[in-house]
Specification:
Layout: E1 12-16, H1 21-32, E2 36-41, H2 44-56, E3 61-65, H3 71-85, E4 90-93, H4 108-136, E5 139-144, H5 148-151, H6 157-177, E6 182-189, H7 195-200, H8 207-214, H9 223-234, E7 245-248
Parallel strand pairs: 1-2, 1-4, 2-3, 4-5, 5-6, 6-7
Helix pairs in contact: 1-9, 3-4, 4-6
Length: 259
């Protein structure tokens, strides 16, 4: 923990895709700095473990099984959050799906599955959260994207395209909801040490070392480093930042690296 332990004190956050990887890291770092956290994803077994870790830190937590592609489940997630904790201050749209496949071999179902989670799910969750935040004239929405909207990403046309949509959505919602005191920003992680990414994206022989050598800082990012960026954007220190993209990639994007 690199922030003072009360920077998000009294705040209520929802983190989608909160059972593993970056989502889990964000949920735990939020709890360490004072927030009560709702974690949501499709797999309940992962969520309960994270919620228990959050409670062990002395914070309140709720695990809600949610498929972000389903608007009824998304609305219920937000409704239960407000019912349990009385409000919703922060939403982190982290739920995602990705795998490598040549574009010409990508099935329509594969395309739709990823686009529905990443692009549609982000909008459904943002819309549901905004309906709670707008009357209060405040709120923070943080979307987890990638650098693919600028660089492209061979083998992941479904995810790269969906993330590009989220990047534009971030800017659009930031403009539209600024009058309500809601800020909307996104974090674009570079290669990050997660088990899911290793299996789905860096599994080819030699890929991990090749990618690492192409990053100016010569290493992958940690989950905590992405989470610290989210803590900053969720805090009062970022109150005058909206529509921005915070790139956390060890300099890979400015060096022109593609993954």
């Amino acid at each position: 923990m690199i922030f003072k332990d009360n920077i998000l004190s009294g705040q209520v956050a929802v983190v989608t895709g909160g059972g593993t990887g970056i989502g889990k890291g964000i949920a735990l770092e939020f709890a360490k700095v004072g927030a009560d956290v709702v974690v949501a994803s499709r797999k309940m077994e992962n969520l309960e473990k994270v919620a228990s870790e959050i409670r062990a830190l002395g914070r309140r937590s709720l695990a809600i099984q949610t498929d972000v592609r389903n608007t009824e489940q998304v609305d219920e997630m937000v409704k239960r959050t407000v019912s349990e904790f009385g409000k919703l201050d922060i939403l982190v749209n982290n739920a995602a799906g990705n795998f490598r496949v040549p574009a010409e071999e990508l099935s329509i179902n594969g395309w739709l599955a990823v686009v529905n989670i990443v692009l549609n799910g982000t909008f459904y969750c943002s819309r549901a959260a905004a309906k709670v935040m707008i009357p209060l004239k405040r709120g923070k929405i943080i979307n987890i994207t990638s650098t693919a909207p600028w660089t492209g990403a061979a083998g992941t046309v479904h995810s790269a395209s969906a993330k590009a949509g989220v990047w534009t959505m971030t800017k659009t919602l930031a403009i539209e909801w600024a009058k309500y005191g809601i800020t909307v920003n996104d974090i674009a992680p570079g290669p990050t040490e997660t088990e899911g990414a290793k299996g789905a994206l860096w599994s080819e022989p030699g890929a991990y070392e090749r990618i690492k050598e192409g990053i100016p800082l010569k290493r992958f990012g940690s989950v905590e480093e992405i989470a610290w960026a989210a803590v900053f954007l969720a805090s009062e220190a970022a109150n005058f930042i909206t529509g921005a993209t915070l790139v956390v990639d060890g300099g890979a994007w400015i060096a022109g690296r593609r993954y």
